[in-house]
């Protein structure tokens, strides 16, 4: 039986929540609030647990729009750390290697930036939801298995460097840096144990003194910003990883449209006219 009602709910996903967890929270709340048993619900584009920002959750008949919404242009802001890498290209794992950075200048960063505008080829991260031989790549990666992921063409419509912080002289003047990989943050570990919703995988920390850049990117469906960070480091003759990422737009939806996750239960109520259509959802056949 087809759904006769539905809507797109824009949510500001917090860091350390998976997209799946956000959908589950909304599903549970809608069921309880409107007395429903089953209905269709899904999201239009995964956000990594360590990223925050705009997540579009489609409910009822709006699930038919998922493919169309996923095709919309995405805009992100974030931070890259230069002179270091992690196996997953972000802070889900600790830094595994440091690289020289004293040669990195604002001019070199601008030269590298130009290489990442337009149609580019990139290899998705091993720690991603890309399927290889029918299995998600991150499952193999977390089991320590290496899999070959094919490169794909994506489009970067705009890539702006909004800030450059050169880092400390001590770090940048080292030709062959050595270090002891940092342990996962005790604060994050304690927070995860108190809140079962939080993403429980270990998180690395940013080594002190490394250069950092802030950026804004507008790109096509399927673009991995973590892969851009990895490749940007290579273009600089160094290394790089993503330390912060926030999605700010998907198509015509922006963060200005989004509900804070903590406000969901207060805003999505049976007497809020904006959400009356949810009470008309038909059970999923």
Describe this protein's structure.
The protein contains eight helices and 14 strands. With 285 residues, it is an alpha+beta fold. Strands 1, 2, 3, 4, 7, 10, 11, 12, 13 and 14 form a ten-stranded mixed β-sheet that branches. Residues 178-194 have low confidence and may be disordered.
Labels describing this entry:
285 residues, alpha+beta, two-stranded antiparallel sheet, 8 helices, 22% helix, 28% strand
Number of distinct helices = 8
The tally of strands reads: 14
Largest sheet: 10 strands, mixed
Q: Radius of gyration from the CA trace?
A: 21 Å
Question: Topology, pairings included?
Answer:
Elements: E1 6-13, H1 19-34, E2 41-43, E3 52-60, H2 66-70, E4 74-82, E5 84-85, E6 97-98, H3 106-114, E7 118-122, E8 131-132, E9 135-136, H4 137-142, E10 152-165, H5 169-172, H6 186-194, E11 212-219, H7 225-235, E12 240-250, E13 253-254, E14 259-260, H8 264-267
Parallel strand pairs: 1-14, 3-12
Antiparallel strand pairs: 1-3, 2-3, 4-11, 4-12, 5-6, 7-10, 8-9, 10-11, 12-13
């Amino acid at each position: 039986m087809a759904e006769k009602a539905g809507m797109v709910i824009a949510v500001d996903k917090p860091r350390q929540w998976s997209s799946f967890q956000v959908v589950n929270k909304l599903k549970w709340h809608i069921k309880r609030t409107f007395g429903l048993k089953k209905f269709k619900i899904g999201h239009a584009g995964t956000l990594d647990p360590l990223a925050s920002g705009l997540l579009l959750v489609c409910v009822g008949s709006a699930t038919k729009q998922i493919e169309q919404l996923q095709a919309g242009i995405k805009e992100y802001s974030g931070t890259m750390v230069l002179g270091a890498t992690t196996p997953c290209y972000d802070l889900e794992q600790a830094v595994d290697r440091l690289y020289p950075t004293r040669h990195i200048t604002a001019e070199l960063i601008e030269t590298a930036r130009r290489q990442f505008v337009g149609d580019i080829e990139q290899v998705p991260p091993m720690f991603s939801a890309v399927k290889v031989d029918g299995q998600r790549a991150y499952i193999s990666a977390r089991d320590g298995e290496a899999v070959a992921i094919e490169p794909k063409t994506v489009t970067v419509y705009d890539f702006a460097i909004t800030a450059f912080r050169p880092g400390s002289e001590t770090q940048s003047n080292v030709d062959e840096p050595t270090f002891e990989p940092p342990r996962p943050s005790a604060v994050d570990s304690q927070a995860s144990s108190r809140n079962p919703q939080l993403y429980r995988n270990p998180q690395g920390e940013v080594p002190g003194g490394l250069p950092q850049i802030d950026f804004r990117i507008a790109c096509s469906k399927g673009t991995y910003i973590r892969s851009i960070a990895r490749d940007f480091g290579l273009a600089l003759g160094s290394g790089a990883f993503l330390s912060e990422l926030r999605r700010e737009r998907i198509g015509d939806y922006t963060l200005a449209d989004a509900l804070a996750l903590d406000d969901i239960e207060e805003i999505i109520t049976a007497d809020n006219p904006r959400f009356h259509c949810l009470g008309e959802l038909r059970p999923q056949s």
